[in-house]
Each structure stands twice: as structure tokens, then as C-alpha cells.
Design brief:
681 residues, alpha/beta, Alpha-Beta Plaits, TIM Barrel, 4 domains, 8-stranded mixed barrel, 5-stranded mixed sheet, 26 helices, rod-shaped, disordered C terminus, binds ligand C2E, binds calcium ion
Length: 681
């Protein structure tokens, strides 16, 4: 019981939420409280100014009001400050102490005035004390400890001062006041209980809200961020893109969308394993974020593709500087678990609103620029321009025409011979697709193959052309083979591969006479799938030619796993061979590699006698190019073969590192007959 009474005066320092709420409730009441104390005291000073000495009635009241004003001022100064727990508890303790001190001072003043007054003035004093204390207690409703201090103190003073006065009326007032404070104390206690419950409930609600907020933040992070790199993901990127487009449309202004794609990431994954690939992506994301500059939004769209939103317009030069910083940051070697991996980055940029006004349009433009960078300037950057716009329109038109094309009628083949420089004989013809559309004329395969891949018509075209090629193969001498180009989509399609195999078997063609040409870049797209297709073709007995060798990222591991039957040195090397010694060294090392692994090497794109001579000197036997013959229609082949058959053969090249048999290349009959055919044609 005694403990429960003591608890009424105790501060709730074990629950800081309650302490803080008490303080904030009190701060709101404090001006009223001091106003009431001062105003009521001034009234008392006025009624007692005639009976008590002025120093006591007016002077003391003045001093008390001054104290009230100073306290009020201090409270108003502090009301906005967010106090630490320790100071908040201390502040509450001060309220309790100040309640005692201030009430003691007021009661002392009332006691002094009591001595001077008559019954009327004493009744006024009793009324003043009762009404003031009761109102103060109501102001202290939430600060129970101080309210109970005020109630107890006032009850003691009231009884002591008026209860023993001997005056019936004053004793009556004392009893009235005692009954009032008992009810007041009871009400304050109940109210305080509800107040504490409310605060605790509110605290719990805030904590629960906090937990919900954190959960929702976590969910947002998971849904909008890439787990591996921690960068914003594709969904977040497009939301951000739509957001900035909306803002720029309203406010005006421009921004830049960039796409960054790592070149040579797939081989790293294939050769070193996925854990090294993952670590590389994490490191690449960090480098990209640094190099992109502050303010740039960087996201991972998936795989090795990243996106940037540069929120301000940049000139082409500035953009180039930025993209160079990105390229060089990503080109630096990655050291992971003892392995050193190297990649480069191609970038495509498109500016809003010139390149596109909607998110999908702008993204497509940046993607187009990236495609260009990858195709023409690997490791470089391309900014989408009006020429690209024109190209897109042309491509879209081509797409429309191709969709309506009659494949078996409009598509045909041209054949270009691959010759052996040691025998001067044609070893095979490479079949090259030709499309002559009745509406737009003939279109080069470099243009229509990518479009056919895009609209998923490439499989039909490949199968139609392969059928035509097999018909031609049946007409040629047994010693001459067919080299047939496959697209990346063909290699990735098990159904196309099965149909090709079926065509070979049903037509009764000798698979040993057939080579399929695939490029390195095709392998990059899905190496394992490509290997499965290649194995199926090899199992049938066909050969595999690694085309355009040297332009991609072929590692020895690739060549080894594919074990091709031929490697074709890319045209770009042949062109440079006569001017650039470094290029010659590259070709020589490719020829050396072929020698070592026992694979035939073909130098393609031979246009001049000098190129043919250099290729021969470097030890390459098989050659192909305009210098020997342009691609020709199937009907021209018999006469072409007849023409070169009549020309005597003399060997002049180094074969597999062997010594040359002939010194005089100009009069050498190996390259000459084919060249003559070309000139005569
Ligand atoms: P490719 O497989 O590298 O084919 C060789 C290309 O080089 C052919 O161009 C050929 O005409 C050209 N060429 C031959 N000798 C020379 C030369 O001495 N100098 C120069 N500058 N070029 C020479 P074409 O027929 O325009 O084919 C271009 C590309 O289109 C081919 O490159 C190949 O990637 C693709 N392609 C052609 N036919 C087919 C096909 O039936 N299927 C697939 N999937 N792709 C094909
Ligand atoms: Ca080819
Ligand atoms: Ca080629």
C-alpha cells in the first residue's frame, strides 16, 4: 500500500516514451499554468493591498510573477529541443522540484497575507489557493508525480492554514477542498493510467510501423536491385527512365541514356567458371559506377549489360570523354582468385528527346548505337545519330519486304571457289546467299541475314539454300566440296540442325564433302548449345570451318573444344597483310596454330597478287578471294572448272612451313590461272 502511494510520486524513467510524452504535454500547458498563477496572485495582491504592507502584497506578488515569467521564458526556449533520454528525465525531475519550490513560495506568501486579513480576505485566500491548486493539477494531468506533489502540499497547507482557524466557514471550505482534491487525485490517477497505455500503444504502433517500413524497404530493394552487384535492376531502370522522361517533358531539357555491354565476358565465364564471372561482374559494376561520375544512375539490365542515365545533356565530345573513362576503367585487367581476366566495353548512347521521346524508343535507339559499336568499333562508343535513324527506317522496310518474300523463288546461291595453291585445284565452293526481291532488287547478305535472324526467317532461308546447295554439289566432281554458312540462330536451333542433317541423308550427299562455316561471335552467344550442334554435324561426318577467325575472342580453349576442320583467316587481315608487318605476324601465328593442331588454314578475301604471294610465303595453302574468282552463279561453274583445268600446275608456296618450290611468283602458274580466269570472265 505504502509502495503504491510512493509510486504516485515516482517518475516513469523506466519508460522513456512516457517521459517524453509527459514533457511534450506539459510544454503545451505551461503558459496557461504560469498565466493562471500570476493572474490569480495579482488579484489577491489587489484585494490585500489595503490590509497588508505594500511590500508584501504588491512587492512579493511582483517577485513571484517575475519568477513565473523567467520559468515560462525558459520553457518556451526549450520546447523545440529534442532532448536525449538522460536530459528528458532530468527535466521531468526539475518540474517536480519546481512544483514544490513555487508552491512553497506562493503558500508562504499566502501565509504572510493571512496574518493581516479579516475573515473575508481569508475566505478569498482560501478560495484563491483552492481554485489555483485545482487548476494547476488539471494542467499537470499527464505529469502525475508533480500533480500529486501539488495535491499533497496544498492539502497539508490548506488544513494547516484554514482547517485549524476555528472559523466554521473556513473549516467548511477546507473540507470542500479536501473532498475535491480526493476526487481530483482519483481522476488524475485514472487518466494517467490511460495516458500511459495510450503512449505504450502508440510506441508499439511506431515500432511496428518501423518494422513494416523496413520490411517494405527490404522488399523494394529485393524487387528493384540486382542481387549480384547490388545495382538497380532492369525494372528499377525502366521505372527511373519513365520518371525522368515525364519530368523532362514537363520541365523541358535533355538527358542521355547509355547502354554498356562487356565484350569478351562469355569466354571468361566459360574458361574460368561462373564464380570468376560473378566476381568480375561485381568488380565491373563498381568500376562502372565510379567512371560514370556522380549523379549518373547506373543499373544492371542482365548478363553483362549495364545501363546509364546521365541526367544532364552532354556534347558529343564530353560524351566521348565519359565513355573513354568507362572503357579504360573496364579494360584494366581483373585479378580474381589468381586468374587474370580481360574484357572491354562497348557503349551506345541516345539523347532525349532528339533520339527518342518514349522510354522504349529511346532504349531502342541506344541499343541500336550499342549494336553499331559492337559491330564496328568494339570497345568504343557510338552516339545515335540521324544516319542511324535512316538506317532503322531502311531496316524496318527491309523487314516488311522480307516477311512477304517467296523464299524458294527469291533466294539463290552464288559460289566462290576455295583453291589449293599447291595444286591449283578448286577444293570447294563457298555457297553465298543472294536475295533478289521483285520490289527492291538485289540485297546483300550482310544486310538481309541480320534482318532474317531478327524476324525468325533465317531457319527457313538456311534450309531452302542448303537444299539448293546439295543439288549443285551432286553436279560437281567428287573432289570438290561445299562450304556452307550457318547463322548464329541456326547453330542455336536444334530443329534447324536436325533438318540439315536430314537433308544430307535423304539426298544421299557425302557428308565428307560438306563443311559448315560458323563464326567465333556465334559461339559467344551460347557456347554449350553451339558445341552440341557442332558435335551433331561432326558426327554425321561433316567438317566445321571457323570463319572470320581473329575478329572475335577465340581462345585456344575454344579452338581445342571445337576441333574445327578448317580455320578461315578474316578478310581484314588479308587486306592489311601487305602494309602492316604486325598483321602479317598475326596471320603467321594463325597459320602456325593450324599447323600445330593439324587443321587446314584458308586465307579469304585475297584481292591482289601480292596478297596471294604473302599468304603463300606465310605457309597458307588454301585461298579464296576476288583475285581468283568472284562468286559466280551455279551455271557458270562447269565452264570455270573447265577453264582452270587446262592450265598447268606448278607449286610455289611453302606448305606447312616447308621450303618454297618456286621463286618466281609472277610466272607462277598456281595463282596465275585463276587470276586469268577472273580477268577473262
Ligand atoms: P563471309 O562468310 O565472310 O563470306 C565471304 C564474303 O566475302 C562474301 O560476301 C564474299 O562475296 C566476299 N568476298 C569474297 N572474296 C572477297 C574479296 O576478295 N574481297 C572482298 N572484299 N570480299 C570478298 P557476301 O556474299 O556479301 O557475304 C557477306 C556475309 O554474309 C558472309 O561473310 C556471311 O557472313 C554472310 N552470308 C553469306 N551467305 C550466307 C548464308 O548462306 N548464310 C548465312 N548465315 N550467312 C551468309
Ligand atoms: Ca563464310
Ligand atoms: Ca569469312
Amino acid at each position: 500500500m505504502f509502495k503504491r502511494i510512493l509510486d504516485l510520486f515516482r517518475l516513469p524513467t523506466d519508460n522513456m516514451d512516457v517521459v517524453r510524452s509527459q514533457l511534450s504535454a506539459f510544454v503545451h500547458q505551461v503558459p496557461l499554468l504560469y498565466f493562471l498563477l500570476a493572474a490569480n496572485s495579482i488579484v489577491v495582491a489587489w484585494t490585500h493591498s489595503d490590509v497588508a504592507p505594500p511590500l508584501l502584497s504588491i512587492g512579493a506578488c511582483y517577485a513571484l510573477c517575475l519568477i513565473c515569467s523567467v520559468r515560462l521564458f525558459q520553457w518556451l526556449q526549450d520546447r523545440k529541443r529534442n532532448l536525449p533520454d538522460k536530459y528528458a528525465a532530468r527535466r521531468l525531475r526539475t518540474i517536480r522540484v519546481m512544483t514544490v519550490v513555487l508552491l512553497a513560495l506562493f503558500f508562504a506568501w499566502v501565509g504572510a497575507l493571512y496574518v493581516y486579513g479579516d475573515l473575508n480576505s481569508r475566505e478569498h485566500l482560501a478560495f484563491y489557493v483552492a481554485i489555483t491548486v485545482n487548476t494547476i493539477c488539471i494542467c499537470l494531468l499527464q505529469v502525475r508525480s508533480s500533480a500529486f506533489v501539488a495535491i499533497s502540499l496544498s492539502a497539508i497547507v490548506f488544513v494547516a492554514m484554514f482547517g485549524f482557524s476555528g472559523d466554521k466557514y473556513l473549516i467548511g471550505i477546507t473540507l470542500n477542498q479536501l473532498f475535491s482534491v480526493i476526487v481530483l487525485a482519483y481522476t488524475i490517477n485514472i487518466h494517467y493510467g490511460s495516458f500511459v497505455d495510450l503512449i505504450q500503444f502508440k510506441g508499439e504502433l511506431i515500432r511496428q510501423n518501423g518494422r513494416m517500413q523496413k520490411l517494405s524497404d527490404d522488399n523494394f530493394k529485393i524487387a528493384n536491385h540486382d542481387v549480384l552487384t547490388g545495382l538497380p535492376n532492369r525494372r528499377y531502370f525502366f521505372a527511373r527512365l519513365r520518371d525522368i522522361i515525364g519530368r523532362k517533358r514537363q520541365e523541358g531539357g535533355s538527358f542521355i541514356l547509355g547502354l554498356v555491354d562487356l565484350d569478351g565476358f562469355k569466354p571468361v565465364n566459360d574458361v574460368y567458371g561462373h564464380h570468376v564471372g560473378d566476381a568480375l561482374l561485381i568488380e565491373a559494376a563498381a568500376r562502372l559506377t565510379m567512371a560514370a561520375g556522380s549523379g549518373t544512375f547506373v543499373a544492371r539490365l542482365g548478363g553483362d549489360e549495364f545501363a546509364l542515365i546521365i541526367p544532364e545533356p552532354l556534347s558529343d565530345e564530353d560524351l566521348l570523354v565519359r565513355s573513354r573513362a568507362i572503357s579504360s576503367a573496364l579494360q584494366a585487367p581483373f585479378e580474381i582468385d589468381g586468374a587474370v581476366a580481360k574484357v572491354s566495353a562497348s557503349c551506345g548512347f541516345a539523347a532525349f528527346p532528339d533520339a527518342g521521346r518514349s522510354d522504349s524508343e529511346l532504349y531502342d535507339r541506344a541499343d541500336h548505337a550499342l549494336y553499331h559499336a559492337k559491330a564496328h568499333q568494339r570497345g568504343g562508343a557510338v552516339v545515335f545519330s540521324s544516319e542511324h535513324e535512316l538506317e532503322i527506317r531502311r531496316e524496318a522496310h527491309l523487314e516488311q519486304v522480307l516477311r512477304r518474300a517467296d523464299i524458294s523463288r527469291e533466294f539463290s546461291l552464288a559460289f566462290q571457289p576455295i583453291l589449293s595453291s599447291s595444286t591449283g585445284q578448286v577444293v570447294a565452293f563457298e555457297a553465298l546467299a543472294r536475295w533478289t526481291s521483285p520490289s527492291i532488287g538485289s540485297i546483300s547478305p550482310g544486310l538481309f541475314i541480320p534482318v532474317a535472324e531478327k524476324v525468325d526467317l533465317i531457319g527457313d532461308i538456311t534450309l531452302e539454300l542448303f537444299g539448293q546447295a546439295l543439288d549443285r554439289l551432286a553436279e560437281w566432281p567428287e573432289s570438290i566440296g561445299l562450304s556452307f554458312n550457318l547463322s548464329a540462330r541456326d547453330i542455336a536451333s536444334a530443329s534447324t540442325i536436325m533438318k540439315l542433317i536430314l537433308l544430307v541423308t535423304t539426298r544421299g550427299a557425302n557428308p565428307k564433302r560438306i563443311d559448315f562455316e560458323i563464326t567465333e561471335t556465334m559461339l559467344m552467344q551460347d557456347f554449350n548449345l553451339a558445341v552440341q550442334s557442332i558435335q551433331a554435324l561432326r558426327l554425321l561426318g561433316c567438317g566445321i570451318v571457323l570463319d572470320d577467325f581473329g575478329t572475335g575472342y577465340s581462345s585456344l580453349a575454344y579452338v581445342h573444344r571445337l576441333s574445327p576442320s578448317k580455320i578461315k583467316v578474316d578478310r581484314s587481315f588479308t587486306l592489311e597483310m601487305s602494309r602492316d608487318p604486325q598483321c602479317r605476324t598475326i596471320v603467321q601465328s594463325i597459320v602456325g596454330l593450324c599447323d600445330n593442331i593439324g587443321v587446314d588454314c584458308v586465307v579469304e578475301g585475297v584481292e591482289t597478287e601480292e596478297q596471294a604471294r604473302i599468304a603463300g610465303e606465310l605457309g597458307c595453302d588454301l585461298m579464296q578471294g576476288y583475285y581468283f574468282a568472284q562468286p559466280m552463279g551455279a551455271p557458270a561453274i562447269p565452264s570455270y572448272l573447265a577453264q582452270i583445268a587446262g592450265i598447268p600446275v606448278k607449286v610455289c608456296t611453302r606448305r606447312h612451313g616447308g621450303e618454297p618450290h618456286c621463286d618466281d611468283v609472277a610466272s607462277c602458274p598456281v595463282t596465275a590461272p585463276a587470276a586469268r580466269v577472273r580477268r577473262e570472265a
